[in-house]
Amino acid sequence: MGYDLIIHDECAADISDPEVIQGIINPHQNGIPGINLHCAMHSYRFGNFKKPVDPEAVNAAWFNYLGLQSFSHGPNEPISIRFSNANHPANAGLEDWNTDKEELYHVVQIMPKTTVLAHGTQKVRSKGDTEKVEEHPIVWTHEYGPKNVRIWSTSLGHFNETVADGRYLDMLTNGVVWTLNRDDLRKKQP
Fold this sequence. Notes:
- The chain is built from four helices and nine strands; from the N terminus they run E-H-E-H-E-E-E-E-E-E-E-H-H.
- It is of the alpha+beta class.
């Protein structure tokens, strides 16, 4: 195909044809690494995707590629980001931070060969005006398919303010460098 990397930043929740989904996944099965941003987590889903899908089921194809399954998100409120795997190269130089308004995606299940790199916590008010804290993975890597293709994903990125934040861009850059297995592209510190 001639591509070094495919970035999925699409919102395609209504695309449910297994053949179309397989066509989207095929390049990754054939060895092209992938980056997945925000709404890509809620794309290409069908069947009862609100419950953990059987990894062998037809409707698990996209979740198997992503490395986890999600179907909903919390309110538009700040998220506290905690990097939980400091020794992973995709986390090099990153520090915990808080977003402005953002969506915390709810994770139903984590698939095999997935490494969570960061969790997000968000305060949520219920109807009775009680407050609870929800926590879910928000950054992860995944080795996909028989070729163990590198996949990096984040569920962050609903708002322009998040995507324009230098901390988000550093995190994404690290993800690209890791996914391509190109440490030579990493910013050299003075």
